[in-house]
Design brief:
Chain lengths: ~230, ~150
């Protein structure tokens, strides 16, 4: 009678339970903490990326406070911004819940929360494209030298409207790109969750994509009042 | 067995990550949603000066703090991750502070440099282009031409 060598036995345990750290780590925990540390370093570069746009906002606003106030009130609808804020906050909550689900091996809830969070990101993008970007492009409310909005009796554009729109378009478009990447990552996580990749002993990817998604939410927490509710 | 080997042998079973209760996470979400309503409400009241901006930023910072501490688990994490975040915020603070000081005080150094950073002619140009193309001024003669704003 032949038996398989010990290291070739079929391991029927789920992926997360079998998971073995890469050989250059002492254990799974060190690998997890190092991956998270790397994620935080990456997130700090993300904050620095957006700080350039926030700085441009503060400088231009410092010089043209009235123009920014008028432009924000006229070009942007705070209700759309508030709706997207709520959508992102709820998705942040479900992502935080998905980490908890992985820690407690609640596989069904883990899948649900990851897919739900991804769908929230899709809602955010659809609202942005359909209710903001498309009408703005059609009317010529685009930034800088491409500005082609001729004005209306309700609002005669000042010379600084293209500047406000430049900050708006650049900041929200780069943020939107981050949301798009986050959505793809969340659906990738959901696909892996269906294959039982995540559980109490291994959920590094859920944790790190979660951190990324929360940063995307954080940026929006600042963009929303500054752009839509120019105080 | 040396201390390092011992740690390696038992490391996988030693760590206990903090698990947030769903009630607590829900409480954080509700607080964030309430603060969003407060942000919108605060922008409707004219406090004058820079107070509105300061208030909006203060609320945003509280929201950011809640997300970082509890959704991103910094409150239960290794403190070094928090050090990285604060070091990054320090860099952002220096960046913004010195840019504002520079551009905000140029008129004291050289009066010629006061005023605007750039003076874009795009808005006036857009209006002229529109008049040349459509034969009327949408601002003064905009009624009845289907402008949907």
């Amino acid at each position: 009678m032949t038996t398989l060598p010990a290291d070739q036995k079929v391991d029927s345990r789920p992926h997360w339970e079998r998971y073995k750290h890469q050989p250059h780590w002492r254990n799974n925990e060190d690998e997890f903490q190092a991956a998270k540390l790397g994620m935080w370093l990456f997130l700090s570069t993300e904050i620095l990326l957006f700080s350039g746009m926030f700085c441009a906002y503060f400088i231009l606003r410092m010089f043209h406070p009235e123009a920014f106030f008028e432009a924000s009130r006229y070009y942007l609808n705070w209700k759309i911004g508030a709706l997207n804020t709520v959508v992102l906050l709820i998705s942040s909550f479900t992502v935080a819940m998905s980490v908890r689900n992985a820690q407690l091996n609640q596989q069904g809830w883990l899948r649900f929360n990851l897919i739900f969070s991804g769908l929230c990101g899709v809602v955010f993008l659809v609202v942005k494209l359909v209710f903001e970007y498309a009408p703005k492009l059609a009317k010529g409310e685009v930034p800088g030298g491409y500005f082609a909005y001729p004005g209306s009796p309700a609002h005669e554009p000042s010379a600084y409207d293209p500047l406000f729109l430049a900050v708006y378009w650049v900041a929200t478009a780069i943020h939107g790109l981050h949301v798009l990447i986050g959505v793809l990552l969340l659906f990738w996580l959901a696909w892996r969750a269906y294959r039982l990749h995540f559980g109490p002993k291994h959920y590094t990817a859920v944790e790190n994509v979660g951190l990324y998604w929360h940063i995307v939410d954080l940026i929006w927490i600042f963009l929303f009042p500054l752009l839509y509710l120019v105080p | 067995m040396s201390a390092i080997e011992s740690h390696a042998a038992h490391g996988d079973h030693e760590h206990k990550h903090h698990v947030s209760s769903w009630q607590f996470l829900t409480g954080v979400l509700v607080t964030l949603l309430i603060l969003t309503v407060v942000t919108v409400g605060a922008s409707r009241i004219d406090l004058g000066g820079g107070l509105n901006l300061a208030l909006a930023l203060a609320i945003a910072c509280v929201k950011a703090g809640l997300v970082c501490a509890f959704f991103m688990h910094l409150a239960h994490d290794k403190p070094f991750n928090t050090v990285i975040l604060f070091y990054c915020l320090l860099a952002v603070g220096c960046f913004m502070l010195f840019t504002v000081i520079d551009l905000g005080s140029r008129d004291r150094v050289d009066p010629v440099r006061s005023g605007t950073v750039v003076d874009p002619p795009m808005a006036a140009q857009a209006r002229e282009n529109y008049i040349a193309e459509h034969g009327y001024d949408p601002v003064t003669d905009g009624h009845g031409h289907g402008d949907d704003h």
